[in-house]
Design a protein that fits this description.
Layout (H helix, E strand, L loop, with lengths): L1 H22 L1 E7 L5 H15 L3 E7 L5 H11 L5 E4 L3 H8 L17 H4 L12 E14 H7 L7 H14 L3 E3 L7 H11 L1 H4 L2 H9 L7 H13 L12 H9 L3 E7 L3 H8 L5 E4 L11 E12 L6 H11 L2 H10 L16 H8 L5 E3 L14 H14 L4 H13 L8
Parallel strand pairs: 1-2, 1-3, 5-6, 8-9
Antiparallel strand pairs: 3-8, 4-6, 4-7, 4-8
Pfam families: SBP_bac_1
GO cellular component, one term: periplasmic space
Function: Part of a binding-protein-dependent transport system for a sugar.
Length: 420
């Protein structure tokens, strides 16, 4: 009788343990953002687990430069985590087309994102979405408030005002008007052409027109930003042709330049480097003329998908639905100021400079970098060619018209617009 009771108690204990283990699911996230490990462990994951008992989450990042190769190897070997951090556009689209990440179109959370926000993780026709958007980066101009006060200028709203500000700073002589170089080329395109361009080609209207063939890179809306970039030459300081991206950053953070054409990802490192030396402000790309509608490059940067082979798909979908909520957006956006949530619902960001960038969504239309979807899949690669063209135009070795003509001719050698 004693042995039977002991066996019964042991069996009951084993059954209870099995029930607990069946309930507790651990999800693993693959990511390249190893700098964010503490943020996930200390802020994001505890918030999710508090409202989702029985589901545990582990953040397991790889080195950024190795992520694509490591992830592909794990997916092929069947050892990848349940949740896959998605890079924008073609790299993730390829994973979806190969059946490595799942179709998430039917997730309830997808209703919380605009078509522009989902574009980086959707099929070319926009009918299927395979990653939940997490954050974008926004382009504009960061400026030294003390320098502006000293020179007696205000943040410009139009192109004419912009060049008047640059001219006044140049005449003052205490500061380089604007810190940007052409040595690395991508800087000229990303912080130059893609920053100011949307105001000329009217954001998504122009970008989609390129894709369907109703506009060409030789049209005025695409040539005009090159023409403006050529005028930047007089305000970048001596030796800008040999100036690298880190050089530009240093010129601004050390207080030697008044304006920095920026991506919002600069906010956190700039705060650390500048400390209390001066206060930063920001303004959106000035519009061509007073009264024009404004557009901003609000470029999707990071999302989260589901490993199609995950054995914990139901729990993983719970996490993905949560990633689409305002709770996640608020935690993520404040933990990483300058990486902005993509939900339709407005999120309050505590960092005042980051909030300034984010506030532009209320008055300006968002678009993505014009070269990133479809148009850089062939050779010559339009993204890389735009780097070279923007740098050449600023240096004065190629005219705006010649650069645009070269880009269009290169694109036409391999790209056929939709419906043509």
């Amino acid at each position: 009788m004693h042995i039977g009771l002991k066996g019964l108690l042991l069996g009951t204990t084993l059954l209870a343990g099995s029930a607990a283990s069946a309930q507790d699911v651990t999800l693993t996230i693959e990511s390249w953002r190893n700098d964010d490990l503490a943020i996930w462990q200390e802020k994001i994951i505890p918030a999710f687990e508090a409202s989702h008992p029985g589901v545990k989450v582990a953040f397991a990042p790889s080195a950024p430069t190795e992520y694509n190769a490591v992830l592909n190897s794990k997916l092929d070997a069947g050892s990848a985590g349940d949740l896959i951090t998605c890079r924008p556009f073609d790299a993730s689209l390829e994973l979806f087309n190969k059946g490595k990440i799942a179709d998430l179109t039917s997730l309830t959370a997808m209703a919380n994102f605009s078509d522009v926000a989902k574009a980086a993780w959707s099929t070319d026709d926009g009918t299927k979405t395979f990653c939940v958007p997490m954050a974008s980066v926004i382009h504009g101009f960061i400026y030294n408030k003390a320098a502006f006060t000293e020179v007696g200028v205000e943040p410009p709203k139009t192109e004419a005002e912009f060049f008047a500000v640059l001219e006044k700073i140049k005449e003052n002589g205490s500061y380089i008007p604007m810190a940007m170089g052409t040595n690395d080329q991508w800087e000229a395109a990303t912080m130059g052409y893609q920053n100011i361009g949307p105001n000329y080609w009217k954001g998504e209207e122009g970008r989609l027109a390129l894709l369907n063939g109703t506009q060409k890179l030789t049209d005025e809306g695409w040539v005009a930003p090159f023409r403006e970039l050529a005028k930047w030459r007089d305000y970048l300081g001596d030796g800008f042709e040999a100036q690298t991206y880190p050089d530009s950053q240093n010129l601004f953070t050390l207080g030697r330049a008044a304006i920095y054409p920026a991506g919002s990802w600069e906010i956190s490192p700039f705060r650390t480097q500048i400390a209390d030396a001066f206060e930063m402000g920001a303004f959106p790309p000035p519009v061509p003329a007073e009264g024009d509608k404004c557009y901003i490059s609000d470029h999707p940067d990071i999302a989260l998908g589901l490993n199609a082979a995950s054995k914990n798909a139901d729990a993983a979908k719970q996490f993905l639905e949560w990633v689409g909520t305002a709770e996640f957006a608020t935690i993520y956006g404040n933990a990483l100021p300058g990486f902005f949530p993509l939900q339709k619902e407005t999120v309050k960001i505590d960092d005042p400079l980051a909030q300034e960038f984010l506030s532009w969504r209320e008055t300006c239309a968002s678009t993505i970098r014009s070269t990133y979807q479809i148009l850089s899949r062939g050779t010559p690669n339009l993204e890389n060619e735009t780097w070279n063209a923007a740098a050449n135009v600023i240096r004065g070795t190629e005219t705006a018209e010649a650069a645009a003509k070269r880009l269009q001719e290169g694109l036409e050698t391999w790209f056929k617009p939709a419906g043509q």
